[in-house]
Each structure stands twice: as structure tokens, then as C-alpha cells.
Write a structure and sequence with these properties.
Blueprint: H1 3-15, H2 18-25, H3 29-43, E1 48-49, E2 56-57, H4 59-82, E3 90-96, H5 98-101, H6 105-115, E4 119-125, H7 128-136, E5 142-146, E6 154-162, E7 165-168, H8 180-185, E8 188-191, H9 197-208, E9 215-218, H10 222-230, E10 235-238, H11 244-248, E11 253-254, E12 264-271, H12 277-291
Parallel strand pairs: 3-4, 3-5, 8-9, 8-10
Antiparallel strand pairs: 1-2, 5-12, 6-12, 7-10, 7-11
Helix pairs in contact: 1-2, 1-3, 1-4, 2-3, 6-12
Pfam families: HTH_1, LysR_substrate
Domain HTH lysR-type: 1-58
Family: Belongs to the LysR transcriptional regulatory family.
Length: 302
């Protein structure tokens, strides 16, 4: 028995299928079946319930899983002790929501380029639901998204919180008088996509005020929302960090409506495994970048 058999077994249990484990380990399905056959032959008994969907460990397999994870983690710890900070060579798959891509992501990439000169980043910008799906199926190594992700094998670390505000063309500022409900009922609101957390928070807040049929134009692109707000098309509901320059030069303004929207909470999320040291290291660097000037002054209070 060697580590390859234990590695195959652990990933089958984590992902629930031979196929997904083979894809994660970049080997063929027959190869992973071969490893399990060798493992069971060595142990003299079955460790997986193959007929079950998803595949589950047997009673003995559950104990083996616990021990195998510890062994693989110890092996990785030993490797990490001898690995220099800049030794990583290869592709790192990073998923990012647009709010972060439009704010401090360039600063992070510059820093990572210096610290890991041999690393290539394969980046995907998507909404949080799409990134969550890909991180739970191990199609990404790390994701910065609106989290946390509630999944047994996903680690979540808080990155930052950004406040949400009503932001619009300066002309909209003079339209508001006293009745905020009447104001919101007669204007167009510009928000994130329907499946997003900010959209649901906005609908809930409006429903609490008795506004059941608001006019909300949705977009999966935060910058599209900003452009529409500048074009006088409605009131954007967004974090000010995205339009900090436009607010500074007066093309957009914050509307001081007597309403409170929940902060956007962003997490760094990655699959928990013995080889996730790099994701954890990058998550720590990203947290520091998000909190440094000039971005730190945009954060919501913790």
C-alpha cells in the first residue's frame, strides 16, 4: 500500500464517485479503480460501498478515511516544511466575483506575481452561485465570493465586508422629499442578478416596507449597474467601492435615504484537503490586500 491508493480512497469518499475523484487527481477512471482494488486486496476487505450513490465508505472504510486523511496531511506538512515560499510551479485556478475584480484584485495579482514568479493563475470572473458550484466540485482551487459556503469539505475565511448604498446620478438627489416609500415605488432600482444575496436582501427590505412590486432591473455585471446609474436609468444599489472615482468627481452621488441594507460579506473559500496549503496562503495575502490603503477605508465596520 502506498500514498496513491490512500489518496484515491480519500477523494472518492470526499467527492462521492470514482469519476469525480479521477478528474480531481487527473487520472483515468480505470486507474483509480485499480488503486482501490490494490488497497482492498492489501487490507483483505472492502472499504467502499460501490452500489450506493454517492459512493460511501464501509464501517471499516470510515475508520480508514479518518486515518488516511491524517497520514496525507502529515505527509503534506513534511513537504511544506521544505518548500520555499516561491517554489510553486504550475496553474492555480482562482474564481472571483466582479465586485472584487473591479476593486483590489489587480493589487493582489501584482503581489502574487512577485511572491510566486513560477505560478500561472487561471482566473474566472463569475457570480457567487456559479463560483460556489465550481468550488464544491473542485473545478477551482480558491474562490473570492459572497459567502460563506455551507459545505462539509469547504473552508471559509472572512475577506472583507462592504457597505451597500443607494447610488445615482446627481439629478436623483433632488427628487427625494420625505416619503421614502413613494420615492422607491416610482423609481427604477438597479441591482445584482435575481439569484444573488444582494437582490434578495433588497426585495426583503422593500417587502418589509410594504412595497410588493418594485421596479428592479437586474444585471450580473456590477459595472453595468454603475453605467446605467450614470446614464440616469435608475438608482444603483451597490457598494461604493466600485464607483469610488465616479463619486469623487461628482458623476454619481450617494442618496441619503433612511434605509439600511445589509453589508456584502466576502469570503475566501476553498476545498479542505491535505494539499490546500497554497489556497490558504493566498487567502491570507488577499485578506491583507483588501484591508490595506486605499481599500481599507471602504470597509464596513466588523
Amino acid at each position: 500500500m502506498d500514498f496513491r491508493e490512500l489518496e484515491a480512497f480519500v477523494w472518492i469518499v470526499k467527492l462521492g464517485s470514482f469519476k469525480h475523484a479521477a478528474e480531481h487527481l487527473h487520472i483515468t477512471q480505470p486507474s483509480i479503480s485499480e488503486r482501490i482494488a490494490r488497497l482492498e486486496d492489501f487490507l483483505g476487505e472492502k472499504v467502499l460501498l460501490r452500489e450506493h450513490r454517492p459512493v460511501l465508505p464501509t464501517l471499516k472504510g470510515r475508520e480508514l478515511f479518518r486515518q488516511a486523511e491524517m497520514m496525507l496531511q502529515e505527509r503534506q506538512n513534511a513537504i511544506d516544511n521544505f518548500r520555499a515560499q516561491t517554489d510553486y510551479q504550475g496553474v492555480f485556478r482562482l474564481g472571483v466575483v466582479e465586485t472584487i475584480a473591479q476593486s483590489w484584485l489587480p493589487d493582489l495579482l501584482t503581489l502574487l506575481s512577485d511572491r510566486f514568479p513560477a505560478m500561472t493563475i487561471e482566473m474566472e470572473v463569475d457570480g457567487s452561485p456559479g463560483l460556489e458550484k465550481k468550488i464544491t466540485t473542485n473545478e477551482l482551487d480558491l474562490a473570492f465570493l459572497m459567502g460563506p459556503i455551507n459545505h462539509d469539505h469547504i473552508v471559509n475565511r472572512l475577506l472583507c465586508r462592504y457597505p451597500m448604498r443607494f447610488i445615482a446620478h446627481p439629478d436623483f438627489k433632488g427628487m427625494y422629499r420625505e416619503d421614502v416609500n413613494d420615492y422607491l415605488e416610482h423609481c427604477v432600482l438597479l441591482s445584482f442578478s435575481r439569484e444573488s444575496i444582494p437582490y434578495k436582501d433588497l426585495r426583503f427590505m422593500l417587502a418589509e416596507r410594504g412595497i410588493e412590486n418594485p421596479r428592479i432591473h437586474c444585471s450580473s455585471s456590477i459595472w453595468t449597474i454603475a453605467r446605467l446609474a450614470m446614464a440616469h436609468s435608475g438608482i444603483g444599489v451597490m457598494p461604493p467601492i466600485i464607483v469610488r472615482n465616479e463619486l469623487a468627481d461628482g458623476r454619481l452621488v450617494k442618496l441619503n435615504l433612511p434605509l439600511h441594507l445589509p453589508n456584502l460579506i466576502f469570503t475566501a473559500s476553498w476545498p479542505a484537503s491535505y494539499d490546500s496549503w497554497l489556497a490558504e496562503k493566498i487567502a491570507r495575502i488577499a485578506h491583507d490586500v483588501a484591508h490595506q490603503a486605499p481599500w481599507g477605508d471602504e470597509l464596513a465596520a466588523t
